[in-house]
Amino acid sequence: MSSKKFYALILLLAAALSACGTPAQEDGTSMASSVTFESPWARATDSAMTAVFGTLAATGDRDVHLVGATSPAAGRVEIHEIARGAGGVNTMQAKAGGITVPPGGSHELAPGGDHLMLMELTAPLRPGGDVEVTLAFEDGSTLPVTAQVRDFAGGDEEYSGDRHGHG
């Protein structure tokens, strides 16, 4: 291949990639544009992890599938659930498959239930502050949200060290 053809191919690929925006569903809407995250908040902490809560509401006519999240305040973010462990103790674990919200439906992220776990925090989160989180959906689209940091005692779950790196 001649260098002119090679550079033309590179320019064509660059143009094609720059034309790519947020992936769309068949009707032209992305999952991120078909969902709201209502009343997001995070639990204040001095430790290396905390949780983000709120309500996901699907506003479109298709399922919305949350598969992950990121935050500049955390080394990693995972979708978690609370499950009844041995001896009846509630324990936190990664939620396999993420969260699916049906069309017109909602899914609450709440203490003692499903939540986003911010792990390996880069600094303490103080009440009254904010934390930025970007939700990631199955179609590759993302939704940035700002969660208010609040004091909260806990949701009766076990936060000791375990195979998920807690503690």
From TrEMBL:
Among its keywords, does the record have Transferase?
Answer: no
Q: Which PROSITE patterns match?
A: PROKAR_LIPOPROTEIN
Q: Which domain of life is it from?
A: Bacteria
Reply yes or no: does the keyword Zinc-finger apply: no
Residues annotated as signal peptide: 1-24
Entry-linked InterPro entries: LpqE-like, Lxx211020-like, PCuAC_sf
Q: Pfam families attached here? A: PCuAC (PF04314)
Instruction: Please provide the record's keywords in A-Z order.
Output: Signal
Q: What is this protein called?
A: Secreted protein
Q: Which organism is it from?
A: Mycolicibacterium vaccae ATCC 25954
